[in-house]
Amino acid sequence: MTFRFARHTNNLEQLKVFYIDVLGFELLGSFENHEGYDGIFVGKANENWHLEFTQTSEKVNHSFDDDDILVFYPNTKIEFDFIIEKLKTNKIEFIEAKNPYWKINGKTILDPDGFHIIISDLKTKWT
Question: Is residue 124 helix, strand or coil?
Fold first, then answer.
């Protein structure tokens, strides 16, 4: 099974920079003016998942709360540490997760649309 998380935004270029330059994902594809939509696909090559962000002239009205999160599990401690350093270098603030589990097992940040992202160090504890 392949998984795609799709979200509409008013911040396409900011999301592109955030997910590619800061979190280290790859630009897997893009499109312009497809029936009024521009979009990008980001993720990791040869994986069964990716994120899709689209933008139109429509004003987006997101509705979410502190428990709506995307969790990413770096494969190694080196990868985890690299991402955390990139976040610090880009002056992206860590916030406190609502769920106590994530307070212990990851670092929480907000993406440019204000959605919660957790970079979990849990997998690095297993290896």
Answer: helix
